[in-house]
Amino acid sequence: MFTLDSDIVGLQQHIQEFNPIFRQAFKCYVAGDWQAAFDNVERCLELWDSDGPTKALQKYMSFFRFQMPETWTGFRNIDEEIDLDEINRRIGAEGGEEANDEVSEGK
Question: Above pLDDT 70, what percent of the chain?
Fold first, then answer.
């Protein structure tokens, strides 16, 4: 049945393409190669624009302008509060209003 439904078959092919790209994005994120992680995250979102884990990586890394923070140890505490006001101030000072608007939309 599932191999005959074109929607299911298309979704299965989509997932098979998506998974290795997401794995590579996550490996780069953990290793601190956030530029490569960003590139792979963008590719993932082209394939599946509503994927929650991918969007979470994108949002977190965008707070740091896709530059690994000096304090990066390969993981983050997801219970840790992120100071969005400070991040917006920092990004606004570096990139003007356009960058500030991008982070505000991501709240």
Answer: 67
Taking the complete model, does pTM exceed 0.85, yes or no?
no
CA distance 67 to 52: 21
Helix H, strand E, coil C: the string for 36-88 is HHHHHHHHHHHHCCCCHHHHHHHHHHHHCCCCCCCCCCCCCCCCCCCCHHHHH
On whether the CB atoms of residues 61 and 34 are closer than 8 A, the answer is: yes
Listed by start position, the domains of the chain span 6-76
CA distance 65 to 57: 12
pLDDT tens digits, 53-85 = 999 899 889 888 899 999 999 998 888 777 777
CA separation for the pair 26, 104 (Å, rounded)? 24
